[in-house]
Amino acid sequence: MEIKQLEYFRAIVDAGTISGAARNLHMTQPPLSYQIKMLEEELGVKLFVRGAKNITLTEAGKALYIRAGSLLTMADITKREVIKANEAATIHIGLAPSTVSMMAKQFKIYAVKHPEIHFDIHEGSTFTLKDQLENRVVDITTLRTPISVNGYASHILMTDELCAMSVLQEKWGENGVLTLEQLSGEPLILSHRYRGFLLSAFERKGLSVDIYYECEDARTAMTLAEYYRSMGLKVLLMADSTSRWAQALREMSNRMEELPGPDAFPMDLSSIISNFYGRAGYVKLNNDKTGSITFIGTVSPAGGNLKEPVTENTKKVARCFYALEQDRADKKRYPAVNPIDSYSKYIEYPEFEAYISEHINDEWIDKVNEIKTRLQRGKEIAEQINILGDDGVPVEYHVIFWKSELIDFVILQQDAFDEIDAVTPMERQEAILDMVIDICHTEFEFDNFNEVMDYFKKMINICKQMNYSKFKSEEYDGFRKQLKELIDEKKLQS
Question: pLDDT category, 474, cuts 50, 70, 90?
Fold first, then answer.
């Protein structure tokens, strides 16, 4: 017997009909009738005598009606008392990370005196906790000052000294203490958080202050880079993670109750990222000098999902993209850069094509595109092999797959700890690419997939030994001769 069934039973009695009770309960008649039927079957008695226009209670029904009223009243009281007791027994506390160790001792003391009280701890930044306090998510919180919270009582738990860092050692006073008088007139770098606090301190003493730089935004670094570029310098700017910057933008957008875009990021995320990356580049100055900003940004998508908004919008504007892959790292294939998802749009530029044609050869770009196509085809066949098994895929498919593996092991992988393989001159890169392309164009004859696998493993091993050998050395030429002999063994004669 359930509380809801008793509520339905009393509703039918009060309405006089099942249809009337259904209207009052804002539900249809069939499920209401079904619940009453289940209640009668559980009790083993008839509760109603159904007439043509209305229903009447049986003796059992009359007894249940009286008891049901008491039970429902008791259930409501119990529910309210439980909710009230739960609210009274739990204190929701916000803690800034820097105050956790200090408050842990206080929690222990309080818990000993009040064992019936439970703590619900919320950890976050000062501004996050301030918002949670104002929105009554937490009952009490610790905050780093200076910060004001209107309408709430506050108490200073601990004070600490404000420290300054300087490269001018002669400015330090005795015992490493700097006075405001000594700092006055010196260019200062400040955090936004302490700007008002420090300015007030200088003003109270009637001192001037020179703020050289204050900001906590990645875009400021780009502004500084633009300044140095206008001086005719070449600047390399590296961003730790534009994903964290985008997440901060999402937090601000949500707090300002702006219309959210995909994954709750700002609607204009695409234009924000585009404008930021667009500030990099090469310029010619009025004095005929040149300057440039090369921007290298990193994205850290959750779970390696390259389809999330930050990564997708970054790929729209970035001319070059290296996709690091956990699976390649697990397989010890270094550098762990996915050759399919990675790209360079510079290869499409006419000036780049002209440069390559002049310094390497006219066929270089076509060969690079062919290599990437073969890698994509090899990946597709690998997926088929995983699904159908080795026997379920034709032998010629295995050959295509292992040719893509040859490209991976010989061209894409590199040993940074080897003196020779760590750096590959352009001449050697050209020779390796031509060698692998020639092998890919060669037709081979095999009887089964095991023969294919064993053959290409031998070939890969010889090629890797070549990569560890000094270019055009006697050892290198020896491995090149072994490779030619191996190719001739299975080469299909025309």
Answer: very high
Within 10 A of 482 (CB to CB), how many other CB atoms are there?
17
How far apart, in whole angstroms, are the C-alpha atoms of residue 460 and residue 455? 9
Domain range for 192 is: 179-214
pLDDT digits (tens, 9 = 90+) for 258-301: 778 888 888 888 888 998 899 999 999 999 999 999 888 889 88
Residues 306 and 201 reside in one and the same domain: no
Same domain membership, residue 272 and residue 194: no
Tell whether pTM > 0.70.
no
Q: What is the CATH number of the domain that holds 479?
A: 1.10.1140.10
Instruction: Report how many domains make up the chain.
Output: 4
In a domain, 159, yes or no: no
User: 314, 343 in Cβ contact below 8 A?
Assistant: no
